[in-house]
Request: fold
Amino acid sequence: MIFSFRSNSIGARLVAATVGAMALLGSAATLAQSSVPAGVSDEVIDVLLESRSQKPASQATPTERAAAVDELANIYAVTDLPAAIEMGKEPRLAAQLDLQRRAILFNAFATDYLAKNQPSDQEIFDTYQEQVLLAPPLEYKARHILVDSQGEALSLIKQLQDGAEFSELAKEHSTGPSGPSGGDLGWFPANAMVKAFSDAVVALEDGGITQAPVQTQFGWHVILREESRESTPPPLESVRDVIVQRVSQEKFLEFVRNLRAKDEK
Reply:
């Protein structure tokens, strides 16, 4: 399984909360031109603009920039108050502020680290080979009929034993999305399905139909395994980007693990 690591997840949530508070202030502000408050740099204005619009600050219109300045004037006016400064010393709020600062630094460092530690071609190839070896050896082509009760499934199995056509019964009775296409699920590896379903498919021979209903969280299944074949791994180039992400993330996680190991000594 490719491990998914969102390097900006913590910071993104915290920044989103901050931007939400800014939006609340902005909704009450006018679009009148405001002078830039003391201490507000162009970088701060740019950060607000980019957080709000998800586009480069250089693309902001004069009206958008004026609105951002007006918002920041409100924010700075309030947060410079002695009462607000004192509030920032309250332990829980101080912890939140420190966490937000550290999360932003963490994300910036992680992005820089990943950019400077790109995996080599050999590392990419070795990881690809590992994934190929872990892939299931067979793929299956199957159909199924999904119904709500075991009794319905047993009745369908009896009709199939008496010579009924599987695809026609699926079209008529299946409640699953594949019903209109005769229950056709196409080709899939066993691990693409829930365990009870995949175990039943693997246990069948090509052309075989389950002789007992198979229960999953979706309902009761009657399954026809039509064919099987050896799995063909995807070409390296088609999964290269995913593998690069995996190797890069593993490098960063290993870097962090080593840092923590040093701290624990």
In short: The chain has ten helices and four strands. The first helix runs from residue 9 to 28. Residues 9-116 form one domain.
